[in-house]
Amino acid sequence: MPGLTLGDTIPNLEVDTTHGRLRFYDYIGDGWLILFSHPGDFTPVCTTELGKMAEYADKFAERGVKLLGLSCDDLHSHREWIKDIETYNNGYKVEFPIVADPKRELIQQLNMVDPDEKDAQGNQVPSRALHIIKLSFLNPASVGRNMDEVVRVLDALHKSAQHKVATPANWKPGDPVVISPSVSNEAAKQMFPQGYKSTHLPSNKDYLRFTHV
Hints:
By secondary structure, the chain is α+β, with helices and mostly antiparallel strands. The chain folds into two domains: 14-145, Glutaredoxin; 163-211, Antioxidant, Horf6, Chain A, domain2 (Antioxidant, Horf6, Chain A, domain 2), CATH 3.30.1020.10. Helices cover 31% and strands 25% of the residues. The chain has helices at 24-28, 44-55, 57-62, 75-88, 105-109, 147-162, 185-191; strands spanning 14-17, 20-23, 32-38, 65-71, 98-100, 113-118, 124-126, 128-132, 135-139, 165-166, 177-179, 197-198, 209-211. The chain is elongated.
């Protein structure tokens, strides 16, 4: 199976996790899922990241998002590693499941392989891949993720899912959003009764329209 790319659907895989065996879509239910991979258990950056995921778990839950980790080690290793994660990260509990992938099959299926990083045995390891529905972050194994950015992107996705808008560069919650070009000015007046502001441009094309939602 080729690796996942933007717009692909994650297959309904059945996997072994620290919470037992589960199928992706049974676990997701009606909400969203963040699936994130890690190069290995008992590694420094991964330990800090899993702790941050645990710390931010409530923020994700508020947004209807479940968490699912993945690391290329077995379940016994995961359970022992969780003790380190919780101790280092001020006792935040790792309450989300972590998938075991000792044969490195899932990271291949889900396009989560770092082409430049290998373990001591010469095996490929996962990149820091993170899939949110139609969005993917892909970091090399040496670069930890920014959890505030993950939350920011989730908020942006909620905005675009609920309204015909997109978020401009450097957008953060509370900032204005841009109205989709597919929405006419007449329709925009109906859809955004709070009003919007058009930006005058040399092209005289009225496509950069800001509003608050």
